[in-house]
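S.,

As promised, the manganese (II) ion run. Input:
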Amino acid sequence: MSPTQAEISPKKLLQIQKNTYQHWVGDGFPVRTLFSYSTLGSLISPFLLFDYAGPKNFAPTEQRHGVGAHPHRGFETVTIVYSGEVQHRDSSGGGGKIGPGDVQWMTAASGLVHEEFHGRDFARHGGILEMVQLWVNLPAKHKMSAPHYQSIPSAAIPVITLPDNRGSVRVIAGEFEDTVGPAHTFTSLNVWDLRLANPNCFKVEVPDGHNTLLAVLRGTVSIAGSETLAAAEVALFDRTGGHILIDHASDAVALLLSGEPIDEPISGSGPFVMNTADEIHQAMEDYQNGKMGVMT
Ligand code: MN
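Predicted complex:
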């Protein structure tokens, strides 16, 4: 098979998202929301939301900092910890710790109630908390599936070293070149954690038809000939085209997200993302009636 024109051409840069406004999630997570479906809708599908917490230094404490019991329904939350430690617990009795390099891929689907706090050991010693929580949408036919978790320790995530000292790629989900990431997903998508030392014109192959985002967490990344992204900035690319071009990067940490769009209506409110307003009302009612579970 020969490549199509779309595969040969680069994905066009559509816009750069910045958000310097920080809000607290509970008393543990100082978050900048770098993109959201509420403003970008189908342009970022299947991704819904990107919360970047920290980096922030926390003093040693015996107190619990975080966010108490709250529900989710209709999507997945993906927690990627860079520094510090997150301890979670849910209404089905599950729980665990997410440390540096680890990923928790939680399929909330039909609904659960959980809490997210700093890990006790991390809190006692204090230190830098830096993490990402990504929300990934589910197709309508899977929104009411049973909830489950994928705990993905750092050691289970393959690392590919890029040639010419350009850095490395951790494949969390999807496929980078011939390496497949450990996360099971409901739709075709990629989550790649990039360390870019100093690539000179690094061509990153990304499937034609995938909405594509590049979120820079540390350092700077130059793309599309002239635009330079700094920390906490996100480039949104057109779904048409077979690659993006990174011209230069300076000690950068970035997440590349791409996915096949879910071509369905989005109706969301707070911790619920469904297809219709009626389903949102139902979610609120089900939560209030304890049908998503109750923390004990
Ligand atoms: Mn949550």
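The chain has a mean pLDDT of 95. The longest helix spans residues 277-288.

- D.
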